[in-house]
Design brief:
By secondary structure, the chain is mostly helical. It has 3 domains: about 130 residues, Rossmann fold; about 120 residues, Serine Threonine Protein Phosphatase 5, Tetratricopeptide repeat, CATH 1.25.40.80; about 170 residues, DNA Cyclobutane Dipyrimidine Photolyase, subunit A, domain 3, CATH 1.10.579.10. The chain has 20 helices and 5 strands. A 5-stranded parallel sheet has the order 3-2-1-4-5, sandwiched between helices. Helix 6 packs across helix 12, helix 14 packs across helix 15 and helix 15 crosses helix 17. The protein starts with a strand and ends in a 9-residue tail after the last helix. Its cofactor is FAD; (6R)-5,10-methylene-5,6,7,8-tetrahydrofolate. Belongs to the DNA photolyase family. Belongs to the DNA photolyase class-1 family. GO terms for molecular function: deoxyribodipyrimidine photo-lyase activity; DNA binding; FAD binding.
């Protein structure tokens, strides 16, 4: 028997490890079985949001049924901590008589160490294959064979590699035998928060594929013009499916390719704006794989470890709860808390506010996001936070400080998104919605907090923090 270990790749289509196991089993006249290891203690140690855990477990119940219909049994194994996984898998291998273990390679350091321990502990071959990116980490390097440290040259090299060598998809496997019975994992009733959030994220693979097709057919050509407007449905809303591996990035690439007849390779071509976002995802995943310290709360630019971040629990709580006095920031944070998701433009705004206005560390923001997001993904979350904080892979980011007022005016000009989430401002007209305390009397004026910092002053202080670094801010 060939055993497939599912992790953050909960799909049947374009699953290289599943494909390899099926091919091997067919060649040798064997069966295929699958396993998923539930590591709740480790997940919580990694700040996994409760709604994301629920999303994964509900997806597992559906995946188990999908596999069973193809004659593949899914085993659900409990191993609370990664350190317990090798023994748990070894017991399953012995019990089921597995001759090899197949899985897709991990990029996070704790997961990689877990996989190394599994390989050392098991008595059968462990075959880890890449699959979390279109191009595997290590495939896109500088002329000196080093990882790219800035996105734009990485993007150019990634596009050249795709243009030269293309990409391929694996189909879902044909049935390996007669359909099997499936006993789903028993889950408690959903909380109100889970019900509200998961309503927007059905867990069937077909639902994810349908959302991808709908976006590609109806919205991808307008993505560049609408993606920054949080009050409009201009984004793909695929992030949770990509983070859980219900969709693969190659499926996204193939859908865009099919829609346009070719892949856009320059900024002027239709569809490039969305492709560029897929490349950003690749960039952060490559960095995480090639720079293990990014998985360990370390900045990409090591000299920024000396930044004098403040420690202010009241300020952090106000940011988390959406009580900063800056409407676009507060609307974004309240939306996150209630829905488990946040628009990408808003993620940049609130991250800049925490680090450059409140001068609190990006690590705190990164961990809080992971504790809330249904699409929590270490590579994307870490990359985004370090970009906003000025500690990450970028050309010269330390002086980039978003003005939360002008960002709101530019991307939510009528205040529609703000009014949806900040009830105190429901009656404020568009002319005053971004500065509600400046000369406008409204019902919620007393309830809505005044701005907790003066942005102009905080901005200068943030820039000074970087300029005072031992190696000099200009080297950031």
């Amino acid at each position: 028997m060939q055993l497939v270990w599912f992790r953050q790749d909960l799909r049947l289509v374009d699953h290289p490890a599943l494909h390899a196991a099926v091919q091997q089993a067919r060649a040798q006249g064997e069966a295929v079985e699958a396993v998923f290891v539930i590591s709740r203690a480790q997940w919580r140690h990694h700040h996994m949001a409760s709604v994301r855990e629920r999303f994964l477990l509900e997806r597992l119940n559906v995946l188990g049924a999908e596999l069973a219909r193809r004659g593949i049994r899914l085993h659900l194994v409990e191993a609370p901590w990664f350190a317990e996984v090798p023994a748990a898998l070894a017991a399953l291998v012995r019990e089921r008589g597995a001759r090899a273990l197949h899985a897709m390679s991990a990029i996070e350091i704790d997961e990689r160490r877990r996989d190394e321990a599994v390989s050392a502990h098991l008595s059968v071959p462990c075959r880890f294959v890449p699959g979390c990116c279109v191009l595997p980490p290590g495939r896109v390097l500088t002329g000196k064979g080093e990882p790219f440290k800035v996105f734009t040259p990485f993007s150019r090299a990634w596009l050249r590699e795709i243009a030269a060598h293309g990409y391929s998809l694996y189909r879902a496997p044909e049935p390996m035998g007669a359909p099997l019975g499936w006993q789903p994992l028993s889950l408690p009733a959903r909380s109100a928060h889970e019900t509200r959030t998961l309503r927007d994220w059905p867990v069937h693979e077909g639902a994810a594929e349908a959302r991808l097709r709908e976006f590609i057919d109806d919205a991808v050509l307008e993505y560049g013009a609408r993606r920054d407007l949080p009050a409009e449905p201009g984004t793909s809303r695929l992030s949770a499916y990509l983070a859980a591996g219900i969709l693969s990035p190659r499926q996204c690439l193939a859908a865009l390719h099919s829609r346009l007849g070719t892949l856009p390779l320059t900024r002027d071509e239709p569809g490039f704006a969305w492709l560029n976002e897929l490349i950003w995802r690749e960039f952060y995943r490559h960095l995480l794989a090639l720079e293990p310290r990014l998985s360990m709360n370390q900045p990409f630019q090591l000299h920024t470890r000396a930044l004098a971040w403040r420690h202010d629990e009241q300020a952090f709580a106000a940011w988390c709860e959406g009580r900063t006095g800056y409407p676009i920031v507060d609307a974004a944070m309240r939306c996150l808390k209630q829905t488990g998701w946040m628009h990408n433009r808003l993620r940049m705004i609130v991250a800049s506010f925490l680090t450059k206005d409140l001068h609190l560390s990006w690590q705190r923001g990164e961990a809080y996001f992971m504790s809330q997001l249904i699409d929590g993904d270490l590579a994307a979350n870490n990359g985004g936070w370090q970009w906003a904080a000025g500690t990450g892979a970028d050309a010269a980011p330390y002086f980039r400080v978003f003005n939360p007022t002008t960002q709101g005016q530019k991307f939510d000009p009528q205040g529609d998104f703000i009014r949806r989430w900040v009830e105190e401002l429901a009656d404020v007209p568009a002319t005053c919605i971004h500065t509600p305390h400046d000369g406008w009397r409204h019902k919620g004026r007393e309830a809505y907090p005044s701005p907790m910092v003066d942005h102009a002053v905080a901005r200068l202080q943030a820039i000074a923090m970087f300029r005072q670094l031992p190696t000099g801010g200009d080297e950031a």
